[in-house]
């Protein structure tokens, strides 16, 4: 019988935690034939990503048993592999059951994605826990000495086929109520609140090329509404200012969000899940990293830029770096965006090269399964 796996997810902010763990759970079940159970303390967040999931009761979707993580935890038999995602605290009773179940249980702390140098040195290290248990730290990452990146089998092939099929792209956009006009560049914007947004929108409105900005509903709508000076923005709302046309889209399931990124020429994304999916889209991107206390997020941002900018010309690297820094600092974007336009062809080619380079390494799910096999 295949090993059983369970993933614990505590939804901290928005949908990133739920998004990453749901993708991982689905892949472990679909590609590795594992029995997977996903514990989540806010099932409503998962329903936004997978509408078939039930926010009030346990049920199975895509081969994964989805369970509410209750405050009044009742003892259950632990799986062979227990993953606590992003350092969430397992129920004490479950840890005790892991120690007393009479068999070896692999306990993994799946950490947040980071390009920082220290990640490789900590990946796979054990930590002795009460009851004789060991917990291992598992770090996703962009380097050989990390656990790799979430990537389903055949993802890049499906993406490239979709991008090469104009009819498929048009049909998908139409399903969202989007009708692109001839000559329009398609951009997507999924972001937290950002003081830099007005400057970027001004630059897009004043540009010589027309742009359609597709904005899935989310926290950025308030800033967008103020820039447009509109009383409210709802799904389906459209507005035009200069060369910029804006349309608000519904919050879509994960697979459809991937297709949206594939349709666009440029993607502004946030957090971790959409950040990685924008990289797999093979298009230039702009990342808004989740702010942390005392500016700790800047180290993560600069560490990724140091890797991502490798292979770019000095002017291309300078332009992209200036744009990302201004966006994350909430500063004026106009000059940085103008400079970026001169580097556009190089940035497009570079995004595809980066994608292929990262896809040449084992993916996160495969690395986790291999780690378990080696541990046994």
TrEMBL record:
GO terms for molecular function: protein-arginine rhamnosyltransferase activity. The keyword Transferase applies. It catalyses: dTDP-beta-L-rhamnose + L-arginyl-[protein] = N(omega)-(alpha-L-rhamnosyl)-L-arginyl-[protein] + dTDP + H(+). Pfam families: EarP (PF10093). InterPro entries: EarP. Keywords: Glycosyltransferase, Transferase. Belongs to the glycosyltransferase 104 family. Protein-arginine rhamnosyltransferase that catalyzes the transfer of a single rhamnose to elongation factor P (EF-P) on 'Lys-32', a modification required for EF-P-dependent rescue of polyproline stalled ribosomes. This is Protein-arginine rhamnosyltransferase. It comes from Azotobacter chroococcum NCIMB 8003.
């Amino acid at each position: 019988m295949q090993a059983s796996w369970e993933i614990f997810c505590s939804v901290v902010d928005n949908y990133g935690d739920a998004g990453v763990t749901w993708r991982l759970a689905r892949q472990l079940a679909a590609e590795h034939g594992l029995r997977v159970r996903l514990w989540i303390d806010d099932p409503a967040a998962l329903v936004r990503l997978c509408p078939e999931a039930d926010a009030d009761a346990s049920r199975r979707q895509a081969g994964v048993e989805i369970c509410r993580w209750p405050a009044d935890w009742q003892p259950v038999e632990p799986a062979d592999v227990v993953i606590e995602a992003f350092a969430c605290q397992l129920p004490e009773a479950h840890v005790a059951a892991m120690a007393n179940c009479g068999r070896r249980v692999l306990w993994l702390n799946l950490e947040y994605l980071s390009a920082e140098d220290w990640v490789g040195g900590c990946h796979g290290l054990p930590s002795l826990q009460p009851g004789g248990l060991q917990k291992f730290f598992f770090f996703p990452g962009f380097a050989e000495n990390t656990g790799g990146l979430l990537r389903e089998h055949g993802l890049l092939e499906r993406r490239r086929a979709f991008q090469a099929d104009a009819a498929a792209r048009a049909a998908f956009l139409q399903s969202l109520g989007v009708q692109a006009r001839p000559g329009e560049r398609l951009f997507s914007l999924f972001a937290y609140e950002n003081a830099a947004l007005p400057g970027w929108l001004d630059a897009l409105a004043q540009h010589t090329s027309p742009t359609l900005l597709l904005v899935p509903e989310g926290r950025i709508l308030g800033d967008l509404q103020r820039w447009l000076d509109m009383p409210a923005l709802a799904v389906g709302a459209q507005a035009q200012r200069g060369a910029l046309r804006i349309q608000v889209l519904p919050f879509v399931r994960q697979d459809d969000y991937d297709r949206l990124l594939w349709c666009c020429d440029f993607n502004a994304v946030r957090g971790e899940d959409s950040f990685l999916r924008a990289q797999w889209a093979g298009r230039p991107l702009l990342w808004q990293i989740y702010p942390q206390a005392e500016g700790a997020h800047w180290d993560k941002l600069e560490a990724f830029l140091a890797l991502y900018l490798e292979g770019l010309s000095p002017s291309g690297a300078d332009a992209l770096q200036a744009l990302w820094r201004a966006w994350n600092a909430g500063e004026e974007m106009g000059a940085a965006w103008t400079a970026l336009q001169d580097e556009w062809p190089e940035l497009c080619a570079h995004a595809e090269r980066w994608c292929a380079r990262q896809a040449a390494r084992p993916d996160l799910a495969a690395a986790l399964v291999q780690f378990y096999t080696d541990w046994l």
